[in-house]
């Protein structure tokens, strides 16, 4: 096999790890402040947008146009009574919110806000608009997201109550299910970019964003990120209709606020990942990047990244305002029976196309090979469905020809109601008075 094609992104991480300590601390504080500010904006935006979609007023008391509503909510939660329930495992009960919130902050460290090959100047020192990068940056993001799940699980278990435990178990199954589909959608990006580094993945989208090249991976990730972030219509771990409040039922004050903070930070993280992996990262949209030469240099990339991030978060709010919560079994069926098989088939197709590209096949050859394989699979599926339908029809006719077994309402030792198609045996009746008179005579 020939070496990788020249259009694969090359990892060059030499610009990271050279900043002085004060600049590293400054960038870390900026990442923390960026997350907190985005969370404050997103909470107000969620209330305002949902109110606008439902023809309501929304927050309008705290600050101009109600823009300080989320800040007031945070202060209110901090001043509430901090309750520790009597039956809880106290150490784990207190640790769970911390374990849920801290990993949510960690993923932002590898998200690029600007190009790695065009540093900016901060107080006379040139640096990249990214805290750090790793050769396996996306694996680091998946690892931190998995650690955050422990906070939810331990919160439900340590509360010593039934409904929080159910919410924690639901969260475990949900995160495991949708992280598999999310990881498979990442794999297609790895194949086209040739790297797991976030800066290299954005660099590989110079000509075309991956949302155009990998639309199925984009759609799979879009569904998986909503399930991963526990957002409506997939907010099963805290579904108020059947769990009262889910894993955080027994929490109050600052501990409850940390769970809310972790949810919204997780939403910001998965939105930033979508922007980085599929929407060109810090790159300007197509019209700007073509006629404005400086659109992707200096501090402008941070603006494009923030606008895309807010657009994806608007999508989260739009979903919450539009769709009802699905049933839990439907949600798990979507993850295991639809998303994961679809992601596997799509990944095989992407790997085949990428291997043909690396081997030097032309676009027409790739279309013939892939199109022929798809048509062949469709023909095989059609023949299989035809014969399966005939077999099923024959079985139904054979079942219909069999005599209907007599229904026994006392099967199993207790009365059983009839199923559709079954009839109760005639009820024995006492002889009527007219039937008895001839016998008496």
From TrEMBL:
Keywords: Cell membrane, Membrane, NAD, Quinone, Translocase, Transmembrane, Transmembrane helix, Ubiquinone. Residues 415-429 have a biased composition (Pro residues). The keyword Membrane applies. The keyword Membrane applies. Residues 395-405, 432-441 have a biased composition (Basic and acidic residues). It catalyses: a quinone + NADH + 5 H(+)(in) = a quinol + NAD(+) + 4 H(+)(out). The chain crosses the membrane at residues 20-45, 92-114, 134-157, 178-203, 209-227, 264-282, 302-322, 334-354, 366-387. Pfam families: NADHdh (PF00146). It is a multi-pass membrane protein. HAMAP family: NDH1_NuoH. NDH-1 shuttles electrons from NADH, via FMN and iron-sulfur (Fe-S) centers, to quinones in the respiratory chain. The immediate electron acceptor for the enzyme in this species is believed to be ubiquinone. Couples the redox reaction to proton translocation (for every two electrons transferred, four hydrogen ions are translocated across the cytoplasmic membrane), and thus conserves the redox energy in a proton gradient. This subunit may bind ubiquinone. Belongs to the complex I subunit 1 family. This is NADH-quinone oxidoreductase subunit H. It comes from Streptomyces sodiiphilus.
